[in-house]
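Hello,

Our lab assistant flagged a job as stuck in the queue for most of the afternoon. It eventually completed. Since we weren't sure the result was trustworthy after the delay, we are filing this so someone can double-check. Below is the sequence as submitted and the structure that was eventually returned. Let us know if re-running is recommended.
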Amino acid sequence: MPRAFDITPSAPKVKMNSGETAEVAFTVSNKLPRTIRTRAHVRPDGETDGGWLVIPPDKAEPELAVDETKLITVKVQLPAKLKDGTYPFHIVVSSLAEPDEIYAESAPVPIIVKHVERKFPWWIAILAAGVVVVAGGAFGLAKVMGKHKSVPVGTNCAADATCGTDQKCIEFRPGSKACLLKPEQACAGDALCSSGYCRADHKCARDDGACTAATVAQDCHPGMLVCAASNKCLLANGQKCTQPTECAAGYCFGGACANCPLCGLPHFGTEPLKSFQRFQGAHW
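-- returned structure --
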């Protein structure tokens, strides 16, 4: 049987101190030829305690359409006096109806715990001693420090300044923001990019929603979005929608994007959109 799901962690490992909390994101893609309701759960490995790892209940049973990708996050909360070591875990995603027949496991993600003493903020001592940094030197130092700023993808954030120089602070679900990769950055999955699309060349696509006919393969997520006449990436037919403006074809019918449901039918003349708007309240 072909694989049911592709599961990709946002980072190959997580470095933490005892007593800290963090979130590890996993990209889950449905490779089955049908929509499926799934259940995700954490499986600790080795000495890892499952009590440290939690998938929020509202994210533990996602429904995935064909080729749809969703983000599942695992909250990690380490005990205050946990000894240094490596604590691996992975997640399992299975069919809610057939968990023993349809499932997939992620690669293990090790949590590397190594207590690090916080260093004294030496720059305070320098300033207190009266050392004056000229404006040009300060700018150069800030530029070098900013250039090398690195933050794990998926780190919680409040603004872009929290993230690495190759990332943006993006709201990936209501009330939750994370540092995700900017366009043209190397990626390993859609959920790692600010645009939500990791192209076939393993680089994040543009995230402004715009597209052109010449570069549509790079701009819009295949199977989910198409480049509409407005030069915007809009939902393809069959994708879930709430309003017509989300759809490339201009119609949201029965909760999914579709071509004009009345076009070609008799008695609707040459203006099917107006006819549809006029009659949908009575017939749908």
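-- support follow-up --
The delay was a queue issue, not a problem with the job. The result is valid. The first helix runs from residue 122 to 128. The helical segments are 122-128, 135-147, 216-219, 272-283.
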